[in-house]
Specification:
single chain; alpha/beta; 4-stranded parallel sheet; 8 strands
Length: 433
């Protein structure tokens, strides 16, 4: 018995469900419509039928620059929005602002004249139009997966971030389906194997359940190293070097600009409780090398962290000062680590460096723990924004799953998402743990 006809029928229904809402989520439609609304419309209101006005150099330069900024912003938004826990609507404004600001800086350095009316108007109209599109298509953008009953694929149905349809027979549902989730390690019957093959041939994407789990949770399971080979976890070497240059330049500018503020915070700490303003501790960094990390002191009792107990900061630790609680919640205590970034010991974004005593303990307790040192540690990281501060071995194993996801998906898009969420935490306190 073949299920090819059933699959083809379901595929036709899937294509038919791609109505006008489906067209609205396409990048091509969003970009062209944004060009019409954010560039053509304001130019028309300004110049009307005066064709010569449309091709004034200043006008033309601005239209081209705005078009480029839109495209870069939309592409960046798509990349960031595809990451676990990220919704494009949350980052629409900062991403588009950053894109238009980057293009504006290029024009200023290149001394390219631009229309001071059109450029900001284009930015505002682009944000408003994309926000409207995202509001209308919010539910359509949530993926819907059909799940095979055999194996461990059914374990995913409790995860947020997707809609789930549990299959009882080898027939696709009539509703919209983004893909088929299968446990490829399970012992499947011939009917199910034929069904999976027919789905793939018909253009329906087939996912191993671990792929979907990783995409929704932002974690890479490390039960067996053979399932996550060293090759798949090796970070991109070129971006590793480019990132180091960007880190160094960013840290230099940030330190110069923030120096007066840092001096005020340091004086406040010194007046608040006895002891130095800066806390120093030996931690394990890039390629397993020890280094001295710098932080604003947030505890009353000094500790060098040479033993495991003193290196662990527990929840509601009595050693944390009143000022220290605020510094930790806002992440301001981490700012002196920009010195470590300048020295090449750390990055802005990466796995958090652990105290030497804790790192040695974790290496004994957790398999593959040392592998997280393949990238530079960061002031903020993927595990930190998803999990917060942890100290128990079980929690550290969970943290390692997040670190391995960061290493496997090492990219400027993931770094941008971490940076945006860290800034939100510093400004609002939301997400600080």
């Amino acid at each position: 018995m073949s299920y090819e006809n059933d699959v083809k029928s379901a595929t036709k229904l899937e294509r038919a469900s791609r109505n006008w809402l489906g067209e609205l989520v396409r990048l091509r439609f969003q970009y062209v419509s944004a060009l019409l609304i954010a560039i053509v419309l304001p130019v028309t209101l300004r110049w009307g039928g005066e064709i010569d006005g449309w091709f004034v150099p200043v006008q033309f330069n601005t239209a081209v620059a705005s078009s480029l900024a839109m495209l870069v912003g939309m592409l960046s938004l798509r990349q960031i929005g595809s990451l676990p826990g990220a919704r494009e609507g949350y980052y629409l404004v900062p991403v588009m602002l950053a894109s238009f600001a980057a293009v504006l800086l290029v024009m200023l350095f290149a001394r390219i004249e631009y229309n001071r009316y059109l450029f900001p108007i284009s930015l505002g109209l682009t944000v408003l139009w994309l926000f409207l599109l995202q509001s209308v298509t919010a539910r359509y953008r949530i993926p819907c997966f059909a799940v095979l009953p055999d194996g461990r694929a059914g374990e995913l149905t409790g995860l947020a971030g997707a809609l789930w349809v549990q299959l009882e027979s080898p027939v696709l549902p009539a509703s919209r389906v983004s893909g088929l989730v299968v446990d490829l390690g399970a012992d499947l019957s011939e009917d199910w194997e034929r069904f999976i093959a027919d789905c793939a041939v018909s253009g329906i994407r087939v996912f191993h359940f671990k792929q979907v789990h990783e995409a929704l949770t932002g974690r890479v399971e490390i039960e067996h190293l053979s399932q996550n080979t060293l090759g798949s976890l090796n970070p991109d070497a070129l971006y590793l070097k480019v990132k180091q240059v960007i880190d160094w330049l960013g840290a230099l500018v940030a330190l110069l600009m923030a120096m007066p503020f840092l001096l005020v915070v340091g004086l406040w700490i010194w007046l608040d409780s006895p002891g130095p303003a800066l806390f120093r501790q030996t931690r394990i960094g890039f390629r397993g090398r020890p280094f001295t990390v710098y932080k604003f002191r947030t505890m009353t009792a000094e500790t060098n962290g040479h033993d495991r107990e003193s290196a662990v900061t527990k929840a509601d630790d009595p050693r944390i000062t009143r000022l220290g609680k605020w510094l930790r919640r806002s992440r301001i205590d981490e700012v002196p680590q920009l010195i470590n970034v300048l020295k090449g010991e750390m990055s802005w974004i990466g796995p958090r460096p652990e105290a030497a005593a804790l790192s040695q303990w974790y290496e004994k307790e957790l398999p593959f723990y040392r592998y997280r040192h393949i990238v530079r540690p960061g002031i903020s990281g993927w595990a930190q924004i998803n999990q917060g501060h942890v100290h128990k071995v079980d929690d550290v194993l969970e943290k390692l799953h997040y670190d391995f996801y960061y290493i496997k998906h090492f990219s400027p898009w993931l770094d941008a998402l971490i940076l945006l969420r860290t800034i939100r935490t510093m400004l609002t306190g939301f997400g600080a743990r």
